[in-house]
Amino acid sequence: MTQILHSRSGHKEWFAVLGFVFLLLFSGCNSENDLPDAPAFSGVATGADTLVEYPADETFNTFGAEEVLRISDRDTPDILGEPDRIGVSANGDILIFDSSIASIHHFNQFGEFLNRIGRSGDGPGEFSKEGRLHVLDNELFIFDRLNAKIEHFNLDEKPPDHIQTIPLKLIGEDSNSPFNMIGVDNNYYWLIYRRIYEDPGSKPETEHFITRMSRKDHAISDSGLITLPPAPVMYENIDGRFFAYPTPYRPNPISAVIDEGELIIGRSDEFEFLRFNPDRETRIATRIEIDPIPLTRDDKQNIAGYADRIMGLVDDHMPDHRPPVIEQIIPTEKNAFWAGYEQPDSEYARWLHITDSGEIDREVLLPLSFTPHIYEGGQFYGRSEGEDGFDVISVFKLTPSI
């Protein structure tokens, strides 16, 4: 049964025990060099006007999912190396950013190859292997963190036409740098900037915050809208100088922008999401109790990505569980979104659909081997593991449950 709790009417004690520090920046400044101070809160839901909470065993209108399309290496003249991000245009074309070649595979809605867009480089229409793809109607945008720019293409042209290169600025007194782009709409580019505090002889601290840049004049109107939940780090001390590394199996912040410029913020250790509108300053939180995923002995022993010299540090910070929430927020129609989590001892992830009022109205089980990137027309588009172990692109269509 749903409980709707109002945080400003008697539930302050509940919010006090929530899990991690969350900062909200309510910016009244328009200067690119003036970053406002932010009040600190504990927990994503803290400060919400409304909390919609469900018990762990709550069930919702359940749908099935059927794979209706698969794109693999045999469907493109290139090897589908590392498909990192997928977008769908207004006419149903499928665009896949491949970080192995820093280029985009362009297919029609039937999975037939059309062309490649862009190439590796730092010139106009080029980008690095760390590009981030976004599609709005028939416009294509590639955020390039390494080259601090956005590349803009027109998909109505055949082949797609490069429109412009948009340089990204450092902002604030600390020269905060662009780190990611979480979305684009008709008015704004929604960006994550990174701020690093580092004094000699002290441990460096990193903070990520969301801001927005006008599509009209490329001015950053709000230096800080909301600060993301922190991710745990561990430190190595080399001759009095500290180096930071992510802790093993750490919870990470999750963020997205949906219709009407509303931001969705969460973290991967709890199924708890805050909906924040920076213009109306409304905050709605949704929460359901879920279990973490126990780590096996193999999980702990076979962890990769760390240098041999810090494996002792890694062992010291090894948890017994890993975060269950999948690090994707999938916007849908009518200002809603999907969010998912792994279930212990299951080959399927449970995905829940959260409405604009913060309520959950439906659910679907998707294979753990499938990571959805986008939802369009009742279908999930994402990356799967093929039978040969290589990545393929899959499309799953929702079907009524029998």
Can you characterise this structure?
The protein has three helices and 34 strands. The two termini are 23 Å apart. With 402 residues, it is mainly β. Residues 5-42 have low confidence and may be disordered. The protein has one domain (3-400): Neuraminidase (6 Propeller). Strands 28-29-30-31-5-34-33-32 form an eight-stranded mixed β-sheet, with no helix packed on it. The protein has a six-stranded mixed β-sheet with strand order 1-4-25-24-23-22, with no helix packed on it. The protein is globular and about 55 Å long.
* Main CATH class: Mainly Beta
Beta-strand percent range:
over 45%
Mean pLDDT: 86
Task: Give the second-level CATH assignment, the architecture.
Answer: 6 Propeller
Set down the secondary structure blueprint.
Blueprint: E1 3-5, H1 12-16, E2 21-24, E3 40-42, E4 50-54, E5 61-71, E6 83-88, E7 94-98, E8 103-107, E9 113-117, E10 119-120, E11 126-127, E12 131-136, E13 139-144, E14 149-154, E15 161-167, E16 177-184, E17 188-197, E18 205-214, E19 220-227, E20 233-238, E21 241-246, E22 253-258, E23 262-267, E24 270-277, E25 282-288, E26 293-294, H2 297-301, H3 311-316, E27 321-322, E28 325-331, E29 337-342, E30 348-354, E31 360-367, E32 370-376, E33 379-385, E34 391-400
Keywords:
mainly beta, 402 residues, 34 strands, 51% strand
At a glance:
Helices cover 4% and strands 51% of the residues. It has helices at 12-16, 297-301, 311-316; strands at residues 3-5, 21-24, 40-42, 50-54, 61-71, 83-88, 94-98, 103-107, 113-117, 119-120, 126-127, 131-136, 139-144, 149-154, 161-167, 177-184, 188-197, 205-214, 220-227, 233-238, 241-246, 253-258, 262-267, 270-277, 282-288, 293-294, 321-322, 325-331, 337-342, 348-354, 360-367, 370-376, 379-385, 391-400.
